[in-house]
Amino acid sequence: MPAKPPGRRRALTWVTALAVPGLGIIAATSWLLASAEARTPSVARIALARAMVPAPSPVPALWSPERGGSGLMLSARARRSCPPAALACADLRDHLTWLQSRGKITYGPVRMEPGGPSDPTPRGVFHVAWKAGRHYVSTSFGIPIPYAVFFAPGGIAFHAGSLTTSSHGCVHLSLPSARYYHDHLPEGAEVAVF
Q: When comparing pLDDT for 145 and 69, which is higher?
């Protein structure tokens, strides 16, 4: 019996094999070419994020001044340094961070590890740009950075990491704290690092 010439099935296989990666490249290129303005929170998105912040939850925070028990206390300097409009605060000197709503602590303070002398965590007021999930891997360093909440230029984020080893500029949190920050900081939320 003579061999069958390549038919529709073989042609369809080749078209599929070439088209699927092509669509991925097109999608990635479209995202990269999107204007920085489209990826930067607008004034309206920031206002919306602030309006969406719930009042302190009846679910108790990991630790707060009202609950006590952890031994972590904020200095008066730290309280003054974080503006009431900020939803997240990071004290680089004392290695503490917390979440707040209208100046009232809703979570924390908790321990954190900032960047070291060669890769310092930037100071200033920033806004959450985007968030990644549990299995996100850093595109710069190829390491897992679970529950990353990106807030400063250069890929600076809150994420789960070592509390004894300095980061490359990010703010390391324990895994439970990183997940809490990820779940409770909306895009556009103000972050104060001092």
A: 145
Tokens of 101: 């709503």
Homologous superfamily (CATH) of 41-193 is L,D-transpeptidase catalytic domain-like (2.40.440.10)
Q: What is the pLDDT of residue 141?
A: 80
Per-residue tokens: 135: 């299995």
Domain map of the chain by residue range?
A: 8-37, 41-193
Please report, as a single letter, which amino acid is at residue 114. Answer: P
Query: Can you read off the two tokens belonging to residue 130?
Result: 């985007």
E strand spans, the chain: 88-91, 96-101, 104-111, 124-127, 130-131, 149-152, 156-160, 171-173, 190-193
Distance, in Å, from the CA atom of 134 to the CA atom of 83, rounded to the nearest integer, reads: 29
Span 36-89, pLDDT tens digits: 444 455 555 555 445 444 444 433 444 444 344 456 889 999 999 999 999 999
Q: 159: helix, coil or strand?
A: strand
